[in-house]
Structures are given as C-alpha cells and as structure tokens.
Amino acid sequence: MADFAPPDDGRRACNTESNRSGEVAEKRHHHSPKPNGTNRRQRKPDGKRRPHSSQKHFSGRGHAKHGRQAYAALDLGTNNCRLLIARPSGQDFTVIDAFSRVVRLGEGLALSGRLSDEAMDRALGALHVCAEKLRRRNVYLARSVATEACRRAANGERFIERVREETGIVLDIISAQEEARLAVLGCHVLLEQGNSPALIFEIGGGSTELILVGPGEGAVPRILDWQSVPWGVVSLTDTVMREAVQARDEVERLAVYAAMRRTVTESFAPFAERIAKSSREDDIRLLGTSGTVTTLASLHLELPHYDRRAVDGLIVPSSSMRNISTRLSRLSEAERGQVPCIGPDRAELVVAGCAILESILDLWPAHRLGVADRGIREGILRSLMAGDFASVQSAGKT
User: Fold this and answer.
1) Tens digit of pLDDT for each residue in 329-354?
2) Up-side HSE of residue 108: CA atoms within 13 Å toward CB?
3) Which helix (H) or strand (E) holds 238?
C-alpha cells in the first residue's frame, strides 16, 4: 500500500510559527467540528451570498472496498488552492479529479498582518468549487490543510471558521514542521538514487521549507534536520519588491533582486551553518517542489506551454537554473509576462522565487536539481491511504 509517513527524530528548527499555531493544528486534527446548520448564508464564487445548504462530513467512512474508495487532499496555501481526489492503485494511487486556482490569500499579509477581505473572498470562491467536487466524488476520507498565510494572519482562525460555516470544509492549520513532513512524503520518490545527503525544499507563497534527509528504514527517507523561513514568493515580493522604488531600468531591477537574495540568505544562515558539513560531501542530491522550479524547468526545456509529464521527475543542471534566474531578474514585469510558461499571472512573483532558489543553491551546491510537480497533497493522500490500510489490516487480525 502507500508509503508510511517519514520518521522524525524530533529535532526542531527555528520555527517561524508561534507555539499557538502548532497547538491549533494538533487540536483541529483530532477534534475538528462537523459542519453545523448555521443560519449564516454562503457566498458564491463571485462573493455574493446564497442560501446555506447542508454539507456532507467528508471524512465520514463508507462501506466500499478499500481499493475503490476515493480519498482527497486539499492544500490552501498563501498563493494557491489545490485539490486532489484519488483512489488507491497498487503501491500508488490514480488521480480521478483535481483542481488548482491562484487565490493570492496572503496578498498584503506581510505588511498588514491580516488576510484582506478580497483575498478571503477569492479563496472562498475556490473552496466552494472544491466542496462541490468532494460531494460529487463521494469522497470517503479527506484532509484539508492551510499553511503559512493562516498561521501568520491575526484573523486566520476566524477565516478558518468562516470556511467551515460557508463550505463545510474543515481546514487544519498545520505547523511548518508538518508541512515539511508532508512535502517529503509526497515527492521523495523523485530523489536521485544514492546514499549521499539530500536536501528537499518547497518554495511556497508565504514560506520556504528546507529539509535535510538521509536513508530511512524503508523507502521513505529520514528527516535529519529542517528549517522553515517566512519568505515565499508572495511574502518576499510584498516585503522587498514593493517597498523598493519602482525599478526603472535593468540596474535598479538587479539591485532589488540582490536585496531579495540578501534577505533570504540571512534567514537561511542558521540552517546553512548546521548542514555545512553535509553540503561538502560528494554527490549531494537536491530536489525541489514548487511552482518556481517547475516553471524554470519548463524554460530550460524551452516548452511553448507547461507540460507536467515533461517536467515532473526531470533532472536539470543547477547552472541552467541559475542562468535562467539571472536572465529573468534583468527583465521588467511586462517582459517576463511575454515569456512562455510564465505569462502575466506569474510575471510578478517569479523573480522572488528565483532569488530563493539561488540562495538555496548557494547553501547546497549540488550539480543537479530534481524537479517535482508534487508535494503536500500527494503526501496527504499517501498518509491517509497508508493509515487507513493499516487500520483495516489491524481490524482483520482481531
């Protein structure tokens, strides 16, 4: 059946989230309230109200055979809302439905400390679509998580409650450590073979997770050390790029890019010091999961449009990723918007992702970079399926 969760030796990094957020995540995982019959009216995707309709408890258990049951994983990030619905298929799973939408939930959060009304409405519009898919697919077991934006926002808890009231979806605000664990579980199969140290990273919208892994007892690597910093493509853009004077030429654009690099490198410094010895070993391995690495991999392949089949699992020379990052940092936002696989939607944020990626390559100078178009959602699905299969096996023995 699916892989089991990677073991964790209990070591802690310098957490970016407060202790409260970790406690909330644990509490919600075990005691999530069911949707209730509130009189509050729901919002349509366009933000208008509509009458409330009862919602199914998506994690309710059915009686279908294990191999035919549908499982779901929903990841509400700082920039995107993503859903995967899948059925077990041997040692893996088959995706039967998926959804992804840019919602920019964390837009302006780095400066205001709050989720804006416009951002919450965009996210709710996407979540209504997800709720309908969960109902239509008759999902047997689901887990829905929220990450950095809701961890950091002063009104994050209130937004989570609003989502529950209006869509029936119970979001679990997970800690940065849990986010890192799920990312490893979801993409580790794409690591290059070998026993040398490996670094897995996820560049998100509001944070970046760095995870040092080594050989585990089974197929899943062991987490040796990890770090989460509060810089993702949205938070770094909001904090550095928008505080700088509007760059009028290439020289000024490069100055802004250098400022982003410095900001991220300073945050990485404690982790870089801890892993310095490992980073000097021979044949170190590197795997990245994020829109940044998949976009740059597409540019490396000179694809006219994004193709997941060509990108997921690709191994790219790190020097190529650096060269592409440097080239993009010189372009204006309008010029970046004309580049295939970037377009207007990614033109503003991609430079921040490049700055984060180059800083990662500085502290972990692997010659090659593995590219993963998978991560938290896949990690959730594997955890759900593995845990459910284990409970079925245990029940069969009693």
Assistant:
1) 999 999 999 999 999 989 999 999 99
2) 10
3) none
